[in-house]
Design goal:
single chain, about 525 residues, mainly alpha, Rossmann fold, 5 domains, five-stranded parallel sheet, two-stranded antiparallel ribbon, 22 helices, about 50% helix, globular
Length: about 525
């Protein structure tokens, strides 16, 4: 509502000519009139500012705040789209290349060229559209959808959401979004209640959340190819693919004949209305048969099940009756930390590594890779929210001034030590283990110098390699030296380089300093 007496702008829809009018009576409007009869610019700005503020703290906390994820905003009409584009540039303090409108009414350039530019250009981060990219257009690097318009057709809504679920190889994603690790999720931001508005019944992509992955694979192995089974299996495979390392991905292709990305996309293509348009019933059936054929092999099904059990999967729960909001995230983070502390109290005397950290018995016992791995696995098996990256993000949300950002904390297993110490109050700050280890390493070198041990440049080169190995593996033995540093001459050469210092004692000393937090 705008009260009488205020002077506000009025815009001609066709010419975009702006005039100002002083209201002689109150201007009242309903929510559904927003951006059609009345444009509330502050509302658009508020949504965009909330997105910007929460982008690297809640949505993508594992990333450096450099490149905004490829984002698609759905507008109500062309006028609405123009206002959004202008405000995006203002809020993000960005140039014209950063955000562009892709509609049928863009003059001087073909919409198809803009779509291709959005796919491949690192500079083009946010696109605003009405219908052009709603269906039938693949933009694989896309990671965020923002709805600033309601949709009443369930089918149309599902197709719009589908713009965000396409998988993409890590190298391709990094070429347009350099700070990305992988596309393990996509974010849907509902700014207008689209997830709650009434629509004709149509299931989302993941339509069988309660059905075990094993059951879905069995159904496909038996030749079942209904939409629900195919879409749900595709969603599970896509998530699994993003959780596996390159070695496991290669095994998948060797055993299954296709990569997980290819298996997932084949299933999606078999039920994509746009892909099936113009095909005969027989051709459609053949496409489905081809998509499910790999799953007829029991060896393939067993292998996929094994990988699903062993891999930590980032699965983004997407449902039509839930709204993604910024407000509750801190409460959720506090709940995750509470669960962690309950886990610690429950298992402090059962898990060797946790017991050492909890009781600070570093002088009596030694943290090992196997012990740390056991602790990390036990956390995830207890609850997926207790994984290293999720815990790190939770602490960052609750105690931002005490937590140092970590790009990919899960890649360093020893970060679980940091998380436990911080949760127990043993460390005042939470820092990545390699940062802490670098500081302890320099202190260790200083102590050795005070003892009269000054290392040569050759020895320092070896020590740097040893330090890096310990940082990622929690310890290094003489056997590890032989296997890992064979290109430098292995164990025999290492003993010669450090003589008369006993190599075994040196490894223990450095390990104790870096991992066990004791003086070596």
């Amino acid at each position: 509502k705008v009260e009488a007496g205020y002077t506000i702008p009025k815009i001609d829809r066709k010419t975009r000519h702006k005039i100002y009018e002083t209201l002689d009576e109150d201007l009242e409007y309903k929510p559904e009139q927003l951006d059609r009869s009345v444009t509330a610019l502050n509302q658009i700005r508020t949504v965009l500012e909330a997105y910007k503020q929460n982008l690297f703290t809640q949505l993508f906390p594992e990333r450096e705040p450099t490149w905004v994820p490829k984002t698609l905003i759905f507008a109500k009409d062309d006028n609405h789209a123009e206002n959004i584009v202008r405000l995006v540039r203002e809020v993000f303090n960005a140039d014209n290349d950063f955000c562009k409108k892709i509609t049928y009414n863009v003059s001087g350039v073909k919409p198809e060229d803009l779509i291709q530019e959005f796919r491949i250009s690192p500079a083009f981060r946010i696109a605003v559209t009405v219908d052009m990219i709603a269906t039938g257009t693949d933009i694989k690097p896309l990671e965020v959808l923002i709805f600033m318009r309601d949709v009443h057709s369930e089918l149309y809504y599902e197709q719009m959401k589908g713009r965000g679920v396409r998988t993409i190889p890590v190298s391709d994603l990094k070429s347009v979004t350099p700070n990305a690790v992988c596309k393990s999720k996509f974010i849907l931001i509902d700014a207008v209640g689209v997830t709650e508005s009434k629509k004709s019944v149509q299931p989302p992509l993941e339509r069988k959340k309660g059905v075990p992955f094993r059951k879905l694979l069995e159904q496909l192995g038996q030749g079942r190819s209904d939409d629900a089974a195919l879409s749900s299996t595709a969603a599970r495979l896509a998530a699994l693919g993003n959780a596996l390392n390159e070695e496991k991905q290669a095994q998948v292709k060797e055993i299954c004949g296709k990569s997980l990305q290819e298996l997932s996309n084949s299933l999606l293509d078999a039920i994509d209305a746009d892909k099936l348009e113009g095909k005969t019933e027989a051709e459609t059936e053949q496409l489905r048969d081809d998509a499910v054929r790999p799953f007829a092999n029991p060896k393939v099904r067993d292998f996929l099940l094994t990988q699903a059990r062993n891999a930590y999967m980032y699965v983004d729960d997407i449902s039509t009756d839930k709204v993604i909001e910024f407000a509750p995230v801190k409460e959720r983070a506090e709940g995750i930390i509470k669960s962690l502390k309950e886990f610690i109290e429950l298992h402090k005397d059962e898990l060797a590594a946790l017991s050492i950290i909890y009781h600070k018995s570093y002088g009596k016992e030694r943290l090992t890779y196997d012990g740390i791995k056991e602790l990390s696995d036990a956390l995830v098996n207890n609850a997926p929210s207790l994984s290293i990256p999720v815990l790190w993000g939770a602490f960052m949300q609750v105690s931002p001034n005490k937590v140092q950002r970590a790009k990919t904390p899960e890649k360093m297993l020893t970060n679980v030590i940091q998380l436990m110490r911080f949760a127990l109050g043993q460390d005042a700050e939470l820092k990545p283990f390699d940062t802490v280890a670098a500081q302890r390493y320099n202190l260790w070198l200083g102590r050795q110098k005070k003892r009269g041990i000054v290392f040569s440049s050759d020895q320092l080169g070896w020590l740097e390699e040893i330090k890096n190995f310990i940082v990622y593996n929690s310890s290094m033995t003489e056997k590890d030296v032989q296997e890992t540093l064979s290109d430098k001459g292995g164990l025999l050469k290492a003993r010669q380089v450090f003589a008369p210092i006993d190599l075994s004692n040196l490894l223990n000393s450095l390990s104790n300093t870096l991992i066990n937090k004791t003086e070596g």
